[in-house]
Amino acid sequence: MFVRPDGSYVPAASVRQRTLRNDWLFSYQPTPGTVLFAGYGNSLTNSDPLRGAQIRRTRDGLFLKLSYLFRM
């Protein structure tokens, strides 16, 4: 259900597109205070569910992050 600006409710339209999101996260801590993060994610979509499993990739993402603690 969606709410209109006047406060009334409207039924949601049917979904014609199905999506799937996969995310992976890896972390490595070689010493206390130092951490490496690596992540990957992708999105898949099936734009026409009536035609079967015709899944295609729509988006990919990759990131790296290094965190280091300076000690004095």
Strand content: over 45%
Q: What is the N-to-C order of secondary-structure elements (H for helix, E for strand)?
A: EEEEE
Number of domains: 1
Q: Distance between the terminal alpha carbons, to the nearest Å?
A: 57 Å
Helix content: under 10%
Give me the count of strands.
5
Structural class: mainly beta
Q: Nearest-angstrom radius of gyration?
A: 21 Å
Low-confidence stretches: none
Mean pLDDT: 86
Largest sheet: 3 strands, antiparallel
Quaternary structure annotation = single chain
Shape: elongated
Spatially, the strands of the biggest sheet line up as: 3-4-5
- How many H/I helices? 0
How are the SSEs placed, and which strands pair?
Blueprint: E1 2-3, E2 9-10, E3 18-31, E4 34-46, E5 56-68
Antiparallel strand pairs: 1-2, 3-4, 4-5
Give an overview in words.
The protein is an all-beta fold and 72 residues long. It has one domain. 0% of the residues lie in helices and 61% in strands. It has strands at 2-3, 9-10, 18-31, 34-46, 56-68. It has a three-stranded antiparallel sheet, with no helix packed on it. The termini are far apart. The model has no long low-confidence stretch (mean pLDDT 86).
Short description:
The chain has 72 residues and is mainly beta. It is built from no helices and 5 strands.
Notable traits:
3-stranded antiparallel β-sheet, elongated, 72 residues, single chain, 5 strands, two-stranded antiparallel ribbon, mainly beta
